[in-house]
Each structure stands twice: as structure tokens, then as C-alpha cells.
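Fold it.
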Amino acid sequence: MIEIVKLREHSELASMAAEWFHQKWGIPLEAYKESIDACINTKETIPQWYLAFQNDTIVGGLGVIENDFHNRKDLTPNVCAVYVEEEYRCQGIAGKMLDFVCKDMKKKGIDTLYLVTDHTSFYERYGWKFLCMVQGDDEPDMTRMYIHSES
């Protein structure tokens, strides 16, 4: 059984979550700490962070931030840092997390989300549509931008 938790409701998980995301993506630990702290300690809708647990084990996570390091600042907010531990992949966990975050954001009045990825055909399974190519910050190659709208 997978349980998805909102970090804004579980401040006790903040340090563990920041470390977990840092280990998965290599983004500086302080950047995750700062964003997760803003999620927990402000009334702002963005950023938001989520973890998926099976029992007491983190099996996945993702966040929602203003911009996921790309040049299209108008395409906001962005789902970011989507990750499922390798041994838990192909069990629908990513889809559950994406569905959860889209519904949570809809409750907050945000019905359109964006996501950058190098994956092709993965996010389409979960209702995301390819929108355009965007230039990643300090990246030589373009990357794919997807859009998801809850209506």
C-alpha cells in the first residue's frame, strides 16, 4: 500500500526529504531545504513537496515549483524531481503521485501544471501532453515540456 504525504502537513519529514531529493537529483541540499522550508512555513501555494511511502520506506517523491530550470518562465508552475526508487518502478507509483499532485493543486486553484523531461511516451500514460521544446538553464540541448490540465 502506497501512502502519499504532503510535506506541508509533515514538517518532521523536512530534513529527511531534502536529503532524499538531493541524493536522487544532485541539486544542492540547501536548495531543497530552502524550498521545502518555504512549502512548510509560508501560506504560498508554491512550492509544494510530496513523498510516497510504503510502510516507513520512501519509495518516491516529487515537487511543484515555479520554474524547473528552463527559459520559459511563463510556463508555471512546474512539477519537478519526479522519482521512484528503482525496485518500486513499474507498479504505477509515478502515476499515483502525478494524479495526487494534480488533484492537490486543483484544490488550491491551479488547474494547469507543466513538467520538463527527457522521457518520451512516459508522461502521456498519465494524461500529460507534449507542449513544446524548452531550453534548460546552462544546457546545450533542448528538453521536452509537457502540460497537464485538470478541468
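The longest strand covers residues 57-65.
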